[in-house]
Amino acid sequence: MKPIRSSRRAVLVLASAGSVLALSAAPVLAGPAFDACAAEASSQYEVGFESIGRETWDIDTSAAIKACSEALKEEPDSAQVKGWLARAYFADGDTEKAVPLFEEAAEGGHVIALAIYGDMLTTGDGVETDMERGAQLLLQGAEAGFALAQNSMGLSYDFGEGVEQNYDEAARWYRAAAEQGMAKAQSNLGLMYQEGLGVPRDYVAAAAWFEKAVAQGDVSAQVNLGKVLQDGLGQDVDMERAVELYRLAADAGDMYGQNNLAFLLENGEGVEQDVAEAAELYQLAADQGMALAKHNLALLYEDGRGVKQDYAKALQLYEEAAEGGEMRAAVNLGLLYMDGLGTEVDYAEALKWTQIAADKAQPIGLNNMGHIYENGLGVDVDLDLAKSYYQQSADLGYQLAVDNLARLNSGGSSGGGKTKSK
Question: Residue 238 class from Cβ within 10 Å (0-12 exposed, 13-18 middle, 19+ buried)?
Fold first, then answer.
């Protein structure tokens, strides 16, 4: 079992779009009410507001709504004021008031409206999903040089949302935002270098971009750099720094950081082994819906490590993890049903979950399907089918399947080996 890194979608910033006629750039001459609104709700990536702008989540929504409402009374046609007021409502969770203002501000070319409303349309956040329109608005904001829109445009190309998937374009827009100092874009560009998508694979460059984002406290970059150091990609393994980075992310409530730190604590890698703390961290990540953390926690409950052994709890967690797409959990769930641990022996359920894993080419699942058909566990004995499953698993490099296949081919006794997935 290896911990996983943060996905790029997990580093999505609040950005969006609408249709526009002209793009606003530098601020217009305005009075004190305009300035007060700008001080509360502008973005540091807007031209002219670099020193006073802030992230969406750092907005004092009540102060921003009050200031920008006053400004809008004085300048009812200002796209900037409408965009800032919409942003304040959005940060306050009031999309009903934000959306019409975003529409008008985007029509007037305000880059914040183009960015935030574009993302809302792309993700269906408070509005009906319209990825194509979302991408159009994001592109207008990106072409105007607005970092939030550039990063989100990178995401749209990265995942093919509203546009045809294009890693070259994704990397180009991530870089544009990253070079403006946007931490999330720096982390995203690092991932492109790590995976060789749209740029040559370059672990050194990946780590360098992650470091830039880590210096700004970006949680996703902390996880991403931790994984690079844990795996020794392009540099020496540094488990101690990986632990430090994962702990920073975990302390910020990031489920990937919690899961990855728990894995190192469970195994005593780069830190003194503490399985009980690992279980607590897995639980925190599992509570956020992370399938891998549920699988990892289920392993502890099944084995009674760091927690009191509880097969029924393991069964529940494996099922939740399997339903979340974790195929190792599907394998282990099948085994609990096969062996009657935490439940009655139920070969039909064992077959169901093992088949699900096998259909996803999970090598242990394929091997265990061979075991089921070799031994007739709830099915008719079928040695040819058993050999077929063992062969598929062996082709994926699973040694137990290699041994099982060799035994059957040599006319050895039935029985075979099955195992759970770590």
Answer: middle
